[in-house]
Amino acid sequence: MWFTSDNAAGCPPEVFAALAAANANCIAGYSLPPSEGANETPGYTSGYGTDPLTEEVQARIRRLFGHPDAVVRLVTTGTAANALALACLCPPWGTVFCAREAHILVDECGAPEFFAHGSRMLGVDGPDGRISPQGLRRAVEATGQSLHNMQRGALSLTNVTEAGTVYTAAQTAELAEIAQDFGLSVHLDGARFCNAVAATGATPAALSWRAGVDVLSFGGTKNGLLGVEAVVFFNPNLLENFDFRRKRGGHLLSKGRYLAAQMLAMLEADRWLHWASHANAMAARLAQGLVARGVRLAYPVQANILFPQWDAGISSHLRAAGAQFYDMPAPEGTEGARLVTSWSTTPAEVDAFLNLFQGLRG
Amino acid sequence: MWFTSDNAAGCPPEVFAALAAANANCIAGYSLPPSEGANETPGYTSGYGTDPLTEEVQARIRRLFGHPDAVVRLVTTGTAANALALACLCPPWGTVFCAREAHILVDECGAPEFFAHGSRMLGVDGPDGRISPQGLRRAVEATGQSLHNMQRGALSLTNVTEAGTVYTAAQTAELAEIAQDFGLSVHLDGARFCNAVAATGATPAALSWRAGVDVLSFGGTKNGLLGVEAVVFFNPNLLENFDFRRKRGGHLLSKGRYLAAQMLAMLEADRWLHWASHANAMAARLAQGLVARGVRLAYPVQANILFPQWDAGISSHLRAAGAQFYDMPAPEGTEGARLVTSWSTTPAEVDAFLNLFQGLRG
Amino acid sequence: MWFTSDNAAGCPPEVFAALAAANANCIAGYSLPPSEGANETPGYTSGYGTDPLTEEVQARIRRLFGHPDAVVRLVTTGTAANALALACLCPPWGTVFCAREAHILVDECGAPEFFAHGSRMLGVDGPDGRISPQGLRRAVEATGQSLHNMQRGALSLTNVTEAGTVYTAAQTAELAEIAQDFGLSVHLDGARFCNAVAATGATPAALSWRAGVDVLSFGGTKNGLLGVEAVVFFNPNLLENFDFRRKRGGHLLSKGRYLAAQMLAMLEADRWLHWASHANAMAARLAQGLVARGVRLAYPVQANILFPQWDAGISSHLRAAGAQFYDMPAPEGTEGARLVTSWSTTPAEVDAFLNLFQGLRG
Amino acid sequence: MWFTSDNAAGCPPEVFAALAAANANCIAGYSLPPSEGANETPGYTSGYGTDPLTEEVQARIRRLFGHPDAVVRLVTTGTAANALALACLCPPWGTVFCAREAHILVDECGAPEFFAHGSRMLGVDGPDGRISPQGLRRAVEATGQSLHNMQRGALSLTNVTEAGTVYTAAQTAELAEIAQDFGLSVHLDGARFCNAVAATGATPAALSWRAGVDVLSFGGTKNGLLGVEAVVFFNPNLLENFDFRRKRGGHLLSKGRYLAAQMLAMLEADRWLHWASHANAMAARLAQGLVARGVRLAYPVQANILFPQWDAGISSHLRAAGAQFYDMPAPEGTEGARLVTSWSTTPAEVDAFLNLFQGLRG
Question: Domains, chain C, ranges and CATH?
Answer without folding.
Answer: 13-269 (3.40.640.10), 272-355 (3.90.1150.10)
